[in-house]
Amino acid sequence: MPQGPGTFVFDAYGTLFDFNAAIARHRGAAGADADRFSEIWRLKQIEYTWTLTLAGRYVEFWTLTQRALDYTFARVPSVPKSLRKDLLDAYIKLDAFPDARHVLRALKARGDRTAILSNGSPAMLASAVEAAGIAADLDAVLSVDTVKMFKPRPEVYALVTQRFSVQPSEVVFVSSNRWDAMGATAFGFRTVWVNRSKSPGEYDDLPPAAAVSDLTALLSLPR
Predict the structure, then answer these.
(1) CA dist., res. 26 & res. 24, Å (int)
(2) SS in 3 state form for 173-197?
(3) Prior bond to 208 cis, omega within 30?
(4) Whether residues 195 and 111 fall in one domain
(5) Do 158 and 195 belong to one domain?
(6) Potential cystine with 206: which of 30, 110, 169, 185 (Cβ 3.0-4.6 Å)?
(7) Active-site residue identified among 11, 18, 137, 180
(8) Domain C-terminal end among 92, 109, 127
(9) Residue 59: which CATH number?
(10) Contact residues for 167 (Cβ-Cβ < 8 A; gap 6+)
(11) Is 95 labeled as catalytic in the residue annotation?
């Protein structure tokens, strides 16, 4: 971890913002398959980013989020399609995890720089940041829309080094997605995997610098 003021860059969805919050707000209407529905929605959303990037194509994340939702309605017909607008409205203003605001403010208070690097489109990220009330605690909000490709392409992580004029080794990158942590580690970031869901490890050849259970652990990591 940095010896002096550092640059801490966070993934957005799953790391700062709870993507399961959309279905959680409508759990009663979604019914017994709500958790399965949320999991498939997320998996298809990310799958689309990978397949399109591999094919050399780009469609912004909000459109992919809607396509993934429509696919999920088809896969899980027990969830009424009448929830589509409500779920999308909820997704555009997801709840922040309880530790997100505290940790960002604590990092800023000690002089560190903070940023988001996300697959999200600029409009999605602006809405989520505003809803969470964390705009003042961020030095930058970076979207893959700038390079028209998704993580884990190295061109995406390079947006951070270009924005802050730093070397990869000077950046602490924080993500709840192990595949994202893998990509960031391969790029040269010092990566922290926030394993909120206690998932098994992967990508053993590209381990994170640290694995933690929540964001508050960042404040006690060795500097």
Answers:
(1) 5
(2) EEECCHHHHHHHHHHCCEEEEECCC
(3) no
(4) yes
(5) yes
(6) 185
(7) 11
(8) 92
(9) 1.10.150.240
(10) 161, 188
(11) no
- What are the structure tokens assigned to 6, written together? 């550092």
- Work out the angle at residue 194's Cα, subtended by the Cα atoms of residues 191 and 198, and round it to the nearest 5 degrees: 130
| CA distance between the termini of the chain | 5
Q: How confident is the model at residue 220 (pLDDT cuts 50, 70, 90)?
A: confident
In DSSP terms, 211 is beta-bridged to: 193
Please give the backbone phi and psi of residue 173, each rounded to the nearest 5 degrees, phi first: -105, 130
pLDDT tens-place string over residues 63-86 = 999 999 999 999 999 999 999 999
Q: How far apart are CA 93 and CA 91, in angstroms?
A: 5
Rounded to the nearest 10 degrees, what angle do helices 61-75 and 34-54 cross at? 130
Cα 15 to Cα 39: distance, rounded to the nearest angstrom: 16
Its pTM stands at: 0.94
Distance of CA 150 to the CA centre of its chain: 12
What's the CA dihedral at 140, 104, 221, 202 to 10 degrees? -70
Strand partners, 142: 117
67 shares a domain with 40: yes
**CA-CA distance, 183 to 180, in Å (whole number)?**
5
Distances (CA, A) of 17 to 120, 166, 174, 178: 11, 26, 13, 16
Pairwise CA distance, residues 179 & 203, whole Å: 8
Contact (Cβ atoms closer than 8 angstroms) between residue 155 and residue 173: no
Find tokens 């997605």 and name the residue.
177
